[in-house]
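FW: tagging you since you asked about this chain on Friday. Here's the raw sequence from the shared folder, copied in full. Didn't touch anything.
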Amino acid sequence: MLWRHEDVLMALGGGIDIRSGHVMTDPTEFIEKGNVFAMTSLPTMPLMHGAAQWSVMGGSFTGNRIVLMDKFDAAEVWRLIEAEKVNLLMITGDAMARPLMDELNEHPQAHDLSSMFAISSTAALFSQGLKDSFLDYFPNMVITDSIGSSEGGANGISVVAKGTAIQGGPTVAPVKDAVVLDDDLKPIPAGTGEIGRLARSGNLPIGYYKDPEKTAATFVIAADGKRYVIPGDFARLEADGTITLLGRGSVCINSGGEKIFPEEVENALKSHPEVFDAVVIGVPDERFGERVVAVVQPRVGTTPSLEALQEHCRSHIAGYKVPRKLTVVDAIVRSPAGKPDYRWAKDTALADL
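HL: got it, structure written out here
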């Protein structure tokens, strides 16, 4: 990815000071804001991941202290928070949140975590059940869920609340220049219920390094001359101006003409007490085109049934989104950054038919 320095600075902050809401027009403002408040942060994701790069660069540019670790280990994370007096813990969704919570439940008094006042998740599904567990354990903690991309920086952020309705992704307050576009690259008005593609204008990269075809597909120019980055996520602009992330278009399931985003079904599955991890994919179906399959890693000592999971899911999502088949595995395959390997999941489910 090729960036101009000033675009990096503006994209890091989303073009807005999240503390005051002030819209920044000069890159130097972003650095000046860092002089107001400095803290110690611990990004737990690999540095090859965009979320880690953004957090490390953003913290470094504003004079914060960054604690790094060789690889993710739940026990080591909690140890480092105590030893280094970490204020902000940064994770990528359930892949890190679940083992962290399991470690806390197993050793609740092992570490002094009083220095920590914020947890930030981004780039992967942070299921509502785990959000509730963290808020139960840290009732006074500021926990946020944000969306964005390596190509465009921040798109929006939300403060986590208990009991939020299960859906594909978080509903966030958008940052400056974040929009939802229709197929003609026109911004969708708020409150229509129409699903579009999440995009951002303003300070953007020049393009992908030595990849003109991918650059042309991702960085587009609308009829009015405005340039947008469209990484591939689908979203909906709500009546109050917030944006609800639905999921990645490339893994969307089409069953009987209905679009089903795996993240919403995964969120419902992960709230079941016998499910440790889950990935949802679509497999060919003669009648409906595709049908929903859940690839599930059970919690140790449990054997969840398809019927039990279906009944649970129906209390959270529409009936046509409920899994029609269950494939049980020893472990879900994920990238080092915590993102699910949907190709592996599909191959595994097909082999189990």
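FW: Residues 94-106 form the longest helix (13 residues).
HL: agreed, and Residues 219 and 229 are 5 Å apart (CA to CA).
FW: great, closing this out.
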